[in-house]
Amino acid sequence: MTVIKTKIGRRSFLKTSAALGGGIMIGFNWLVSCKSLSPEKKGVSIPNEWFDINGYIKIGDSGMVTIFSPNPEIGQNVMTSMPMIVAEELDVPWENVIVEQGDLDEDSFKNPQTAGGSNSIKRGWDPLRMAGATGKRMLLEATAKEWGLSIKDLSASDGIIKEKRGKRQISYGEIASKAVGIEIPKEVTLKDPKDYKLIGTYQKNVEGAKIVTGKPLYGLDFKRENMLIAAIEHPPSFGMQVKDFNKQEIKRMKGIKDAFIIDTSEYMRKWKKWNGTNAFPQIIAILGESTWKVMNAKKMLRVTWDSHGELETSEMHERRLVEDIETGKVVSSRKDGDPSSAFAKANKVIERTYTSPFMPHNPMEPMNFFADVKGNKVELIGPTQTPKSMQEAVSKMLDIPIKNISLKMTRMGGGFGRRLYTHFGLEAAAISKKIGAPVKMVYTREDDMTQGTYRPAYRSTYKAGLDENNNLIAFSVKGVGLPDGPVIPDRFPAGSVDNYIGQNKSSFTNISVGAWTAPRSHFTAGAEQSFLDEVAELAGKDPIDFRLELFDRALKNPVGDEYDYDAERYAGVLKLVKEKSDWGNDGSSSKKGVAAYFCHDSYVAVVMEVVMKNDEPKVKKEWCAADCGIVINKEGATNMIEGRIIDGIGHAMYSELKFENGSSVHKNFDTYNFIRHDQSPSDIETYFVESETAPTGLGEPSYPPAVGALANALYRATGKRFYHQPYSNEIGT
């Protein structure tokens, strides 16, 4: 067990109040602005009355518990896993818990209410445990006082408090009202991981039934009486802006209330934060009574566009990357030993170049947001990964105090980094203010795919030198991106090679980019792990054994001052996936490839089995080993890992975004390829390293090694190395 002081919590996250119906509301003011839906739960009745007070874990007189989930739900299942942590320490039966989405209030919620960087569980681990443990302790103290006993004479489990040496017992619901006024303890005891009953189990998504039955959950589902629908039109090309359009004609159409240009350029000059990216601050807005009417009006638009920058093409992008990988600005770098001399002395030298195109995020739910600006007050509702930034941005743009801006989060139909940015909420707020009415702004698929905020295009060159004994003595990697490069210099194999150099470079483009699932890692893992396989082959070594040699060096005699991975944990997932996949035993018609990667503080190794059918490769099976510390919900964790693996296969194999005259050639799914059901692995086996380490990221880490394992399996199945994504372009060439 762990004893943790709550003095920080006394000051910042805990308060209590009596419930009208005889229960207690144990409040943690980092879980705020929530209203109970109070659904019926099997086996426990709804309390007589719930307090409608923001931000509380509520215990009713019936024993029902409501736990609010503070972070945005983007499909990573935090709405299930975060309350599980609280319920574990509170020691309440999961079947007696209802879960609700919290609203935004980061002044009280001391950890960021964001969905990004696979950080939700990592950052919330300690506060969530403290919340549950503090609630349990207060209930125990209330019972001890009621029975005239010491708290040491009591135990609590499954929502029941028992006398250790007697027969008395009482439920949380029965004692809840008596806990009012109990002083918050100075310290609480957290469970030892070996005593967990809920954490580490398989639990279904708390909103699963609502999702599959089509209940309103998403931003697109939101409706408000008398709200208008807004469609938008942004410039067709990067390097263009709107000059004029047939405004009066559009306004005369049936069901159309107004049409005008919205310009957020001035705001962008004031707001310099990273997620303020917006290539098209000037857009046309069409307001109407229904989606159908505004979409029909949009088809009738005739717009005059002005050019204000270069209209870029894919050929231009390729030339820049080729040039700037040599001459581009070095953003970050690392150097160990004397790589130049080591390469000159090497017995064998191998050099390879890898590329990947721009890619859109393409969440299934296009961008949308609701805004109602009334004088000096704003109501915002919608799917955002960064609700606090959205609130701050709207405040800045409209010059309205943050305290007057409320924001409620809906469930998101995907994001992958796309909803980290604020422009779509700003557009909704600007439109609402202009027309003086509540507005739900909705992008079409074409709007979403052509707006920008893409994953950068990348180019990296890897070089390795072997001595006469086939030992790796020199390693070089340099990479460039439009505009951000993919290389992370302190990552593996830094620390394992005497002579190493890593350089990350940038190039210029007027096409807007943004964070995309596992930024940089999604490309670098595929390139790096493909290259390491080729180096292992040149050295005459098994790919896994070759990697393990390098990890052993980094563990026992590391090179350089520091590197950003744990070599032992890295090696651990490789050893586990080697065992589970029966590595070294390929089938008669199938071949296996391997990759391992570290990102978001987690380690994942993947073995992929590919079979050729009619000269086309098909991923038959995958094995995955993950070390992400303590796994909260194995159901959700498994789903995240396997979903990301399939996503990695799909994008690496099929997806690319090309440009002509500053415009994306691909505007919808009829030309932009995603993985299809019959192209997905027939079977995936997922294994977690047993650990008592605090949880780390899991939403993104399995994507990067999937790309490398795919490339290596394709090589073994086809006899051809793959250097340029999407790999489908290279099959048969």
Describe the structure.
This protein is an alpha+beta fold. The chain has three domains: 2-212, Aldehyde Oxidoreductase, domain 4 (2-Layer Sandwich); 221-308 and 367-442, Aldehyde Oxidoreductase, domain 4 (2-Layer Sandwich); 328-359 and 454-729, Aldehyde oxidase/xanthine dehydrogenase, molybdopterin binding domain (Aldehyde Oxidoreductase, domain 4, 2-Layer Sandwich), CATH 3.30.365.10. The protein is 29% helix and 25% strand. The strands form eight sheets. It has a seven-stranded mixed sheet, sandwiched between helices. It starts with a strand and ends in a 15-residue tail after the last helix.
Percent strand equals 25-35%
Average pLDDT rating: 91
The poorly predicted ranges are 7-23, 27-40, 48-56
Count of discrete domains: 3
Number of helices: 18
Q: Distance N terminus to C terminus?
A: 60 Å
How would a textbook summarize the main sheet? 7 strands, mixed
- C-alpha-based Rg, rounded: 28 Å
Per CATH, the superfamily of the largest domain is: Aldehyde oxidase/xanthine dehydrogenase, molybdopterin binding domain
**Count of strand segments:** 30
Summarize the structure.
The protein has 733 residues and is an alpha+beta fold. It has 18 helices and 30 strands.
SSE layout and pairing:
Layout: E1 2-5, H1 7-12, E2 15-18, E3 24-27, E4 56-59, E5 65-69, H2 78-90, E6 97-101, H3 120-147, E7 154-157, E8 160-163, E9 169-171, H4 172-175, E10 187-190, H5 208-212, E11 228-233, E12 240-245, H6 247-251, E13 256-263, H7 265-270, E14 282-288, H8 291-299, E15 303-307, H9 314-327, E16 329-336, H10 339-345, E17 348-356, E18 368-374, E19 377-382, H11 387-398, E20 405-409, H12 423-435, E21 439-442, H13 445-450, E22 457-466, E23 472-482, E24 499-506, H14 521-539, H15 543-556, H16 567-580, E25 590-599, E26 602-613, E27 616-627, H17 634-654, E28 659-660, E29 663-664, E30 683-688, H18 703-718
Parallel strand pairs: 5-6, 11-21, 19-20, 23-24, 27-30
Antiparallel strand pairs: 1-10, 2-3, 3-4, 4-5, 7-8, 8-9, 11-14, 12-15, 13-14, 16-24, 17-22, 18-19, 18-21, 22-23, 25-26, 26-27, 28-29
